Amino acid sequence: MAAFNLSKEGSTKTLTHVRPLEPGDRLTRVEFERAYDAMPGLKKAELIEGVVYMPSPVRYESHGLPHALMVAWLGVYSAHTPHTGVGDNVSVRLDLENEPQPDALLRLDTAAGGASVIDADGYISGPPELIVEIAASSASYDLHDKLRVYRRCGVQEYLVWRVYDREIDWFTLNEGRYESLPVDAEGVVRSQVFPGLWLNRAAMLEGDLAQALATLEKGLASEEHAIFCQTLRQRSATP
């Protein structure tokens, strides 16, 4: 269905046609946002390297459940870490050709040294420190086009849960390249950007949120997390 916007020029009303978004459209970010806003029933669309992507309907086990588990994990961390914020399916303005809508993200407040801001339109503008995507497999664009965009735009850490492959990849940005974070002897991966954000990979892959949060609680009780919290408070207090 075509979408129209009413606008006023002097005393005369005009109809401005906005063509609905279609997968594969090549648009600027301004054109993309205009079309997205004209489709209020649309739940998710992304602009990656100037190309529109519109994911299929979301299934529970392959997307909805792992998505919820990740948001819960990040939410608990943020609740115990000042000047951090969690985002769930929120659009991010990265540059003029890229406006992804990550499944989840964790960012630092600008006053605490974060690289992104909440702009005048209410969008996140700039790279959040951590982005999380739920992908079907390694063939997904999350591990190809999106990965290149996130790397180029300076997203410091990128986590991809490959559901069908039963694998979680967690990358950290090092000298312009993404490198995999190490897994310790207990199967735990630890964020370098957010001290204390510990991931029990096996528990998360099994959907055992209780065990995943038990591991996270150890990270939250660590000295590195306490120091990080103190640092964030000091940063935000500095004029």
Comma- or semicolon-separated keywords:
globular, 15 strands, alpha+beta, six-stranded mixed beta sheet, single chain, disordered N terminus, 28% strand, tt1808, chain A, 239 residues
Any overview of this molecule?
The chain has one domain: tt1808, chain A, CATH 3.90.1570. Helices cover 29% and strands 28% of the residues. A six-stranded mixed sheet has the order 5-7-10-11-12-13, with helices on both faces. A hairpin with a 7-residue loop joins strand 14 and strand 15. The longest helix is centred in the N-terminal third of the chain and has 20 residues. The N terminus is likely disordered.
Structural class: alpha+beta
The total number of structural domains is: 1
Architecture, according to CATH?
A: Alpha-Beta Complex
Task: Quote the distance from N terminus to C terminus.
Answer: 51 Å
C-alpha Rg (nearest Å): 19 Å
Beta content: 25-35%
Major sheet summary line: 6 strands, mixed
The geometry reads as globular
What's the short version?
The chain has 239 residues and is of the alpha+beta class. Helix content is 29%, strand content 28%.
Question: Helices and strands in order, then pairings?
Answer:
Elements: E1 3-9, E2 12-18, H1 29-37, E3 46-48, E4 51-53, H2 60-79, E5 84-88, E6 92-93, E7 104-108, E8 117-118, E9 124-125, E10 130-135, H3 145-153, E11 157-162, E12 167-174, E13 177-180, E14 188-190, E15 198-200, H4 201-205, H5 209-220, H6 223-237
Parallel strand pairs: 6-9, 10-11
Antiparallel strand pairs: 1-2, 3-4, 5-7, 7-10, 8-9, 11-12, 12-13, 14-15
Helix pairs in contact: 2-5
